[in-house]
Amino acid sequence: MRQVKTERLTIRPIQVTDYEELQSILFDPEVVRYTRYRDITNTEKFAEIFEQHFLNNIYTFGIETKIDHKLIGFYEFHPEENVGILTYALAQDAWGKGYVAEVGIAMMNYGFEELNFDKIEAHYASLNPRSGKVMHKMGMKDLGQIDTFTVPESGEEHQVMAYELTKDDWKLNQAV
Questions:
Q1: In what order do the strands lie in the sheet with 119-125?
Q2: What tens-digit pLDDT sequence spans the chain (176 residues)?
Q3: Top-level CATH class of 4-175?
Q4: Is the C or the N end of the chain the one with fewer CB within 10 Å?
Q5: Per-domain residue ranges for the chain?
């Protein structure tokens, strides 16, 4: 797996030395509130997922700032047939700086060219409309609501929204 560089960031494989920084990110309930990682609440679960999922995985990347080489989050694809469903999370102090869109635009090339996806999808909770805005900035198309989910703590039902980018549309955007 190679590194991908943007103007401000290095996107690279997760390393053993990222353990504490990634654990800090995933243990922040605000960061993981709408992600598949919201149930990682103890060190044993984190150690297991770090070893089995984050290390040596061609679909998972750390996001590191070029200036201070600090891990500020991760970006990953969950492959389902020829579709990559992306998940990302950033430490709270990295929010609002345009990092996810910057990483996402760079990683579309990797997803289509290196991983050979035909389509990349991203899902988000309707309670988090900022994620939808980021997906739009990455050139993805709004699919609207695709599902509902129940918040375990409150029992409230919320909508799952989705965006997608096909390889053909991505190629058209590259030609412009």
A1: 4-5, 9-13, 60-65, 71-80, 83-90, 119-125, 157-166, 141-150
A2: 578 899 999 999 999 999 999 999 999 988 887 777 888 889 999 999 999 999 989 999 999 999 999 999 999 999 999 999 998 999 999 999 999 999 988 899 899 999 999 999 998 888 788 888 888 988 899 999 998 877 777 787 888 889 999 999 998 887 76
A3: alpha beta
A4: C
A5: 4-175
